[in-house]
Design a protein that fits this description.
This is histidine kinase. Keywords: ATP-binding, Kinase, Membrane, Nucleotide-binding, Phosphoprotein, Transferase, Transmembrane, Transmembrane helix, Two-component regulatory system. Helix content is 52%, strand content 17%. The protein is of the alpha+beta class. Strand 4 and strand 5 form a beta hairpin. Helix 4 crosses helix 6. The chain is globular, with a radius of gyration of 23 Å. The N and C termini lie far apart (64 Å). It binds adenosine-5'-diphosphate. Adenosine-5'-diphosphate binds next to helix 6 and helix 7.
Amino acid sequence: DLAPLQFQPRHAELKPFVRSINTLLSRVRNSAERERALIADAAHELRTPLAAMRVNVEALHQQSTDPRQRELMDSLLRSNERATRMVAQLLQLMRSDATADAGMPSSLRLDTLVQDRLAEFDGLAAAAGVELELVATGPVTVSGDREGLVSLVDNLVDNAIKYSPRGGTVHAALERTGTEVLLSVSDQGPGIAVQWRERVFDRFFRVPDQVQSGSGLGLAIVQNVAARHGGRASLHEGAGGGLLVQVALPLAPGQGSD
Ligand code: ADP
């Protein structure tokens, strides 16, 4: 019964109340921590069987000459790829929630990292009939965790390709401004209506009624990784009419406004 406490808020009487609030808070914290660990473990354990499935289906695909069977196996491989990507996204988010597990920061070249990641998407872009372009202004070094930044870039490029029309171009650009580097990725897709722009950074949120499949985790990862590096992510209208996502990251020390 809290009524007497409310009327006589003497210090000594508040103590047990504060104590039980603290106990409650630590229980909530522990259960959130357990939930995070459970999701991270499950995601981690799912990686191996998913990889085994892929290898086996690929082997069957190579042996089969039946077009119907090959079609079904192509569809299995696409589903496997989606599940693998979602598991990787969950792991990335759960790891970055636990500061202890987040990668150690090191000095790394963002321009070459972006270039390498774009090269990895060549096949996917070609299959989607999308052109990839990078405009970078020389070497740019940031202090960060490579795995997190790779995931940030991958999610931006993957989205830009996924939401691009066939024949469209995805532009990636790096630009230094004073103490920051601005990474932008833009496409010529439908963009995101203003009413959803705040919410698309939420975990699992997806704009309703869209044809493309996805997990709703990509932009949450982008924002989370940017924030962890002392940066921020924002959405804009692209020059080509689509979406432009911009990520600002602090430059590594010693690279200031020279
Ligand atoms: P996912 O793409 O897996 O659904 P994201 O978190 O990456 O999840 O994106 C959240 C939502 O934002 C998407 O469902 C989509 O509606 C929208 N979105 C993200 N990137 C783009 C883009 N480049 N063009 C248009 N819409 C986008």
